[in-house]
Amino acid sequence: MYYKQLFTRLNIEVPNDFIEILELHKEKQNANEFSLRVMDSDEIVELIEFLSDIEVYQNIIPLWTDDNSNYVGVFYQGPLKYKICYIDHEETDISPSFRSVSSFIRSIEQDPDLDWRELKKEYPVETESCLQDLEDDQKSIDELNHLLNSNDLDDDLRCQLLFSIMALTPKMHLDSLVKYLDDEDMYVQERACEILGYHRYIPAKDKLIEVSESGMHNGKQAAKGALSRLRG
């Protein structure tokens, strides 16, 4: 089995049903052309070796590519275990976009011609999730917050942890993100504006107005975009 051999080679332990889902998908990829294709094992190993020195990528195994130096990866350990992220060669943002391998595969199999940006993502969550999903996401958020509070993090890792927390946060807990509108990291401030605007979170309106007037450059622009969504 292709994936069983791959994970053994990489010394990564995953459940059998995880492998079976990937094997069935690979058969479909062998029979049809996909915009996001399954990578071969040598490609995966080479890319993992390349990414291994970059801390933010160390819990991720890339499995798909668009052949334009962008990749779709799976978290194989850590707080985001088995969630799906995108590895963009131009901009680092490894916050989860799909809840699981099966939901991502289901999405690309429905329309193999879609590229990553055209896929309908599961995060940030547009509609209220079921109780089990909410509990799972909250567990991930708690573990991410523990990492934030227990380590002396470099700016890049801190930023990525916060990006993930914001992506996972459900509408009922958006108030917990308002504090990041005052963050000293301009990328964190920018993302907080984007997420609150995405959810059209009205209680943040006054703070967004403040950021649009006196925030950092990225934050100002993102706050203006968020306010536009609130008006819409």
Short structural summary:
With 232 residues, the protein is α+β, with helices and mostly antiparallel strands. 50% of the residues lie in helices and 7% in strands. A four-stranded antiparallel β-sheet has the order 1-2-3-4, covered by helices on one side.
Oligomeric state of shown chains: single chain
Give me the strand/helix succession. Answer: HHEHEEEHHHHHH
Output the number of helix runs.
Answer: 9
Helix fraction by DSSP (H/I, runs of at least 4)? 40-55%
SS class? alpha+beta
Q: In what range is the share of β-strand residues? A: 5-15%
Structural summary, described in words:
This is HEAT repeat-containing protein. By secondary structure, this protein is α+β, with helices and mostly antiparallel strands. It folds into two domains: 2-118, no CATH class; 131-231, Leucine-rich Repeat Variant. The protein has nine helices and four strands. Strands 1-2-3-4 form a four-stranded antiparallel sheet, covered by helices on one side. The mean pLDDT is 96.
Give the secondary structure arrangement, pairings included.
Layout: H1 2-9, H2 16-31, E1 37-38, H3 41-51, E2 60-65, E3 71-75, E4 84-87, H4 101-110, H5 131-150, H6 155-168, H7 186-198, H8 205-214, H9 217-231
Antiparallel strand pairs: 1-2, 2-3, 3-4
Helix pairs in contact: 2-4, 5-6, 6-7, 7-9, 8-9
